[in-house]
Amino acid sequence: MTRTEAKNYIVKKFVDEYNDETPYVLDNNENFVKPENDVWVEFSVRYADAEQATIGEEGGRRFSRKGVIAYNVYIPPNTGTYDGDVLCEQINNIFEGKRFEQIICKTGTWKELGMNDQDEFQFYGYIYFELDEKK
């Protein structure tokens, strides 16, 4: 599995397993209109470090690529934090501690960031992952 295939796999996994009731936006979607006074989610996959794990003949070398599955959950003000926690937990449960082919997902967590400039209460969550790519 290549880096591009892994990213697409993670995004598809989110789209397939996330609930259909809460709007979400993926990277580079300029057509998304965020809902007014309602919950919504922002989801992305980012790569960070990489290292060659083994040397050898072409086709048998392993590369360890590290990345993060990142998401933001936005909830309307004065509605408590329960809905945000539920959605963060749902996203974490899709990925945390799971292995999908050569993708190994690590521990996930989320934090309450509080009110943002758009008068929404914001949560930020992330799950680190590694891709074991062969080349």
Question: What labels would you give this structure?
Answer:
single chain, 135 residues, six-stranded mixed β-sheet, 2 helices
Task: Describe the secondary-structure layout.
Blueprint (H helix, E strand, L loop, with lengths): L2 H15 L6 E3 L13 E13 L9 E14 L6 H14 L3 E2 L2 E13 L5 E14 L1
Averaged pLDDT, please? 91
Q: Helix fraction?
A: 10-25%
Total of DSSP H or I helical runs spanning 4+ residues: 2
Strand segment count: 6
What order do the strands of the largest sheet run in, or round the barrel if closed?
1-2-3-6-5-4
Q: Decide which structural class fits the backbone.
A: alpha+beta
Catalogue the unreliable spans: none
Classify the beta-strand content into a percent band.
Answer: 35-45%
Largest sheet: 6 strands, mixed
| Structural shape | elongated
Compute the separation of the termini in Å. 10 Å
Q: Please trace the helix and strand order, writing H or E for each element.
A: HEEEHEEE
Computed over alpha carbons, the radius of gyration is 17 Å
Written description of the protein model:
The chain has helices at 3-17, 82-95; strands spanning 24-26, 40-52, 62-75, 99-100, 103-115, 121-134. The protein is an alpha+beta fold and 135 residues long. A six-stranded mixed β-sheet has the order 1-2-3-6-5-4. Strand 4 and strand 5 (103-115) form a beta hairpin. The protein is elongated, with a radius of gyration of 17 Å.
